[in-house]
Amino acid sequence: GKGGRGKIDGKKSQSKSHKAGLQFPVGRISRFLKKGKYATRVGAGAPVYLASILEYLTAEILELAGNAARDNKKTRIVPRHIQLAVRNDEELNKLFGGVTIAQGGVLPNIHSVLIPKSSTPKEKEGASTPVKKEKKEKKAAK
Question: Collapsing DSSP states into helix, strand and coil, what is residue 68?
C-alpha cells in the first residue's frame, strides 16, 4: 500500500458508519456538528459516539413500541404504541419527561379514589339469586 495515504486501487471506499458497525450516518452527524457551531473543532470520535447513542435509543424505543403494537394485535407501530412504550419504561419516561408525542394519548389510569366501593362477591351472589328465583316462580305460577 501507500502507508496509510490515499486509496489502494480496486478497493471500495468504506463509510464511517460501516467502519463503526452502525446504521446511523456518522458522516452526516459529523457535518451537523461542524455546521451547527457547537464547537470550533470536532474530534473524529465524537460523531461516532453520538451516532451510536442515537442508534441505541432508537432501537430501544422501537423494540418496546413493537411489543406494545403486538400486545394490541397490530403489525404497524403508530404514535400510540410509542407513547405506551416510553411511558411504561421508567428511564425512557424520565428522558421524555417534557415531551409531548402527537396522537399519543395518555396511559390508561383510573385513580383508586374514583373506583366505586363494592361489596364482596359472595354477598352479591347471595343478594341477586333469591330475586331471580322469585321472578322465575312468579312466571311459573302465571
Answer: helix
Residues near 58 by beta carbon (within 8 Å), at least 6 away in sequence:
24
CA neighbor of 65 nearest in space, from 94, 24, 104: 104
* Cβ proximity of 72 and 85 under 8 Å: no
Whether the pLDDT of residue 109 is over 80: the answer is: yes
Enter the pTM of the model: 0.73
What digits encode the pLDDT tens for the residues 6-25? 766 778 999 999 999 999 99
Count of C-beta atoms within a 10 Å radius of residue 54: 15
CA-CA distances (angstroms) from residue 77 to 70, 84, 103, 112? Answer: 9, 11, 12, 31
